[in-house]
Design a protein that fits this description.
This protein has strands at about 5, 40-50, 55-60, 70, 80-85, 90-95, 110-115, 115-120, 125-130, 135, 155-160, 170-175, 185, 195-200, 205-210, 225, 235-240, 245, 250, 255. It folds into 2 domains: about 40-135, Carboxypeptidase-like, regulatory domain (Immunoglobulin-like); about 145-255, Carboxypeptidase-like, regulatory domain (Immunoglobulin-like). The two termini are about 20 Å apart. The chain is built from no helices and 20 strands. About 30% of the residues are buried. The protein has about 260 residues and is mainly β. Strands 1, 3, 4, 6, 7, 8 and 10 form a 7-stranded antiparallel sheet that branches. Strands 12, 13, 15, 16, 17 and 20 form a 6-stranded antiparallel sheet that branches. Strands 11, 14, 18 and 19 form a 4-stranded mixed sheet that branches. Residues about 1-35 and about 140-145 have low confidence and may be disordered.
Length: about 260
């Protein structure tokens, strides 16, 4: 049975630890039969060695793969096989297996994880995806300095869902809209007034997310938000060299 997870908002999570792993093996095999009806199609495959008790996490194309997944498969059996049904669309799949047995949380040393794989589901066309998940054996070096000297950056206020200034929040700055990698810059925690200032080394277009916990994917009860202008995707903030972009306010919501 597929498990659909609702979430508000769709978080984008920085990496504080990256696994050392082998390349993922992807095999896409399309079936011969098609239908005009836009119904779901079966996505199945195997996690090699084979790997049992692993789960396939499904995200929409362009979504952050460290946010709650749209669909999570049932754990694989001894043969490493999985199967689920997805409606037509473009997706990204990642296999994870945590030693703790939990289906959510950061991937730690000793856990298994594959590389993300992009694929497209077409109505009535079965798809086979074969993943290779390897053990995470090391962490990257510590995150660089939280602050950069200079007069180029972004500032604003972080508010909670009630419109009140949110204290204890860090703003994470990314240079790509997916916000799926480690942030380039991170602010200090906000104070009682909710104000933040984060400086960057270069001008450019940046994407911002705010959260109350540093590192790993957000957990239930965490505060999380991103800067957008009422759009589905994050809104870019244009920062010019030797200027501070002001009034970039972010609202955080409790993850549920």
């Amino acid at each position: 049975m597929n498990r659909w997870i609702s979430r508000q908002p769709r978080p984008v999570i920085p990496l504080v630890a990256m696994p050392v792993m082998m390349a993922v093996i992807l095999i896409l095999i399309s079936g011969c039969s098609k239908t005009d009806k836009a119904g779901p199609s079966t996505v199945s495959g195997t996690v090699t060695v084979p790997l049992s008790e692993a789960r396939l996490y499904i995200y929409g194309e362009g979504e952050d793969i460290f946010a709650p997944a749209r669909v999570i498969s049932e754990p694989t059996g001894p043969d490493g096989a999985f199967s689920l049904a997805l409606p037509p669309g473009r997706y990204v799949g990642v296999v994870r297996k945590r030693k703790s047995g939990e289906s959510a949380g950061p991937v730690k040393i000793g856990d298994y994880k594959s590389q993300p794989v992009s694929f497209e589901v077409r109505s009535g066309t079965p798809l086979i995806l074969n993943f290779s998940a390897v053990v995470k054996v090391a962490n990257e070096k510590a995150f660089p300095s939280l602050q950069v000297r200079g007069n180029t950056g972004v500032e604003g206020t972080v508010y909670d869902a009630d419109g009140k200034p949110a204290a204890g929040i860090r703003v994470h700055v990314y240079d790509h809209i997916q916000m799926s990698e480690r942030p380039k810059y991170v602010s200090e925690k906000t104070g009682p007034d909710g104000r933040y200032l984060v400086k960057v080394r270069h001008g450019g277009t940046y994407y911002l997310a705010a959260r109350d916990r540093f590192g790993g994917p957000p957990q239930l009860g965490d505060l999380y938000g991103r800067y957008d202008e009422g759009t589905v995707d994050p809104s870019g903030v244009v920062v010019r060299k030797r200027e501070i972009s002001r009034g970039i306010d972010i609202i955080v919501h409790k993850v549920w």
